[in-house]
Model the fold of this input.
Amino acid sequence: MTGPAANESGLMGQRNLSEPVPAVRDLGESEIEAIRARAYREAPAAKRRVYALNHAGQRYMVKQSAAGRSLPRALGGALLVRFLAGHWPRLGPLRLGQADQLHYEAARLRALHAQGQSVPEVVLVSDDHLIMQDVGPPLTQVMRSLDVAGQAELACRVASELADFHRRGHWHGGAQLRNHTQWDDRLYRIDFEEPLDQTLTLPARQAMDLMLLVHSATAIKAFDGEQRRELCCRLLDDYLRQGPPQAVLEAVRRGHHIKRRLKAMLGWARRWTGKDLERIWLTTEAVETVLPRLAADHRSSAS
Done:
């Protein structure tokens, strides 16, 4: 699903990323109120929904409230869920917005942070703003300084860490590469505003995470078509070889059957279709390659 983390501009400043992320628990009540006041002062001049705020030598990220999806956009989001995870979600949760969305995301971040997961710590949430730790630049920005091999290794690391995240019973809801950041050598997850727990089972949500990650790899500009396909296969391999629950595999297969039917209907027009469908074809071909190989490995290990 798309989210404000796509707005990368301004997320990376002059910070010493080798130092620990500044802890919110070290902030006093008066400092938190000063940060709140500054956010209200600076919001009118902010050019993006998510912007950086500097206070007392520290940097924080501010996400402003925004209207939920329109009905056409919610329908588009539902189609994406259908293609990637094989389920039709209810439209109501996909239209969450304004204060409800900010408070929902803050609750998820606080719960995950309390369990030791690598997510931004919440400074404060109101009906207008969600203010969080700055946890480094998004990976799509980090990747620009890496060669092709380095970009592939970093993406594969995300897939492996996603498998561990899922094994602990968690889910993201926006697992695209752009919704991960890096501080020092630690990867963080951001953008938890999608209330998919209100409309999908946990296995379906985890399958959605995996396919969003794989699908996002098809947009890496440094790779040509074949390199993107190979990277998608590597991401699937790195995740699936860690033994996800069978229900997650079934959700991936269900979504794959739908994408395969779409490809059969429209594949003849591939050379005339746009980039969005081309990315879906690449994702579909990666699943077609990896899932049979995974099944063969399981049969071999069982014999």
User: Anything to note?
Assistant: Residues 2-14, 298-303 have pLDDT under 50 and may be disordered. Residues 4-133 form one domain. The chain has two domains: 4-133, 139-302. The chain is about 50% helix and 10% strand.
